[in-house]
Amino acid sequence: MHAYRTHTCGALRASDTGQSVRLSGWIHRKRDHGGLVFVDLRDHYGLTQLVFAPETPGFATIERLRAESVIRIDGEVVARTPETVNANLDTGEVEVRVRAVEVLSEAAELPLPVFGEPDYPEEIRLKHRYLDLRRETLHRNIVLRSKVIHSIRNRMIDQGFLEYQTPILTASSPEGARDFLVPSRLHPGTFYALPQAPQQFKQLLMVSGFDRYFQIAPCFRDEDLRADRSLEFYQLDVEMSFVTQEDVFAAIEPVMHGVFEEFADGKPVTPYPFPRIPYREAMQKYGSDKPDLRNPLVMQDVSEPFRGGGFGVFARMLESPKAAIWAIPAPGGGSRAFCDRMNSWAQSEGQPGLGYIFWREGEEGGAGPIAKNLGPERTEAIREQLGL
Q1: What is the model's pTM?
Q2: Between the CA atoms of 253, 256, 259 and 262, what dihedral angle is there, to the nearest 10 degrees?
Q3: Rounded CA gap, 304 and 386, in Å?
Q4: Between the CA of residue 68 and those of 27, 74, 126, 182, what are the distances in Å?
Q5: Which of 153, 193, 320, 340 has the fewest CB atoms in 10 Å of its CB?
Q6: Which of 197, 212, 192, 191 has its CA nearest to residue 166?
Q7: Structural element, H or E, at residue 220
Q8: Are 364 and 371 a contacting pair, CB within 8 Å?
Q9: Where is pLDDT greater, at 226 or 325?
Q10: If you compute the radius of gyration of the chain from its CA atoms, what whole number of angstroms results?
Q11: 226 close to 243: Cβ distance less than 8 angstroms
C-alpha cells in the first residue's frame, strides 16, 4: 500500500464500498456525536467523512487534535444510510470507518479559521497566507486562474501562435508608468529595470520573423494602486506580423469568447464578433470610452428643446456652436434626495452642478426649476425623446 494514500479525499464513491483505503489530509471539521467522532478530512480534491469509534486505536488523540492538523488514516469504505447522505459532497454517499490513524503534523491554535468564510482583517490574512489560501473560495480562485491560463494557451496555440518567454531584467524604456529598478551587483551605481510590458522584446521577435507570438506576461509598474491594477500583474501579450486590425480582432475574439463561455457557469456570454462602438458614439451615449454595457442608462442630446427657450442658463450656453445639453434618463430616480446626491457628485467632479426634471404619474408637464422655466411643451418633448 502507498505510504500516504490509495485515494484522494474527493475520489471515493458508492462503488468503492467495502474497500480498504488509506487517506491523508487536513482535519477540516470535527463533530462529537455521543461517543462517535466524525471528521471531515480535506485535501486539494475534496472532503471525505471519517468515523472514529471509541475502540479505534488513536481515538483519544483524534479527540484532542485541533482543526487543520494533518493525519493519515486506514479504514473501510461503508455506505451511508439514505437519511445521512450528503448531496452537497461528491463523496457524500460514503464514509470511512477508521481502523488506524497517524498524526503527521499537529496544528496549534489557529490565528484565523479555515472552515467557513469569516471576514478577517487583511493584515492577519496576509501574515498567515498559508492558512488563508486553504479557505474554499480562495483555493477555488487559484485553481480557476490556472485553468483559465491553460485554456488561453491552448486556444492561442490552436491558432498558430507560439509562446515565447522574454527577459525580466532589462534596460529602462519609456512606457506609461515608472519602472521598478533593481540594483546591479556587478556594476555598482547602475540598475536593471523590470518590464512594464514585453514591448521591445516582442517587437524584436517580429522583426526576426517569428510571425505569431504570445505570452502570459508578468508586468511591473511602479504606480499608485487601482481597483483593476496592482504593482505586478499578468496579461495576455500578443504580437502578429503582416496583419490588419480586422485580423487582430478575428484572432482574439474567439479566444476571449471561448474562455468566458468555458468558465461562464451558466451566465450568458455575448457571441462574437463583439459589438464595436465608435469613440464618438461611446462618449455621447455613455460618457466613457470603456462603457459597461450592462448599464441600461443611455445619455441623449436634448439641446433642441432648450435652444432659445425660457431656461436662460442653458439657452445662453447653446449660443456657442460647441455646446450641447445632455440628459441622463433615470427611471425610478425621481426624488429630491436622489437629485441632491447627483448634484453633489457633479460638483465633486468640478462641474457647477446637475439640473433635473421630474415627471410623475398624473401630473401635466414636468416638475422642478428647469421645467418651470422651460414650459410644458418643451418639457414634454424631452420626456418623449427620452422615452420616460
Answers
A1: 0.80
A2: -60
A3: 13
A4: 5, 19, 18, 39
A5: 320
A6: 197
A7: strand 212-220
A8: no
A9: 325
A10: 31
A11: no
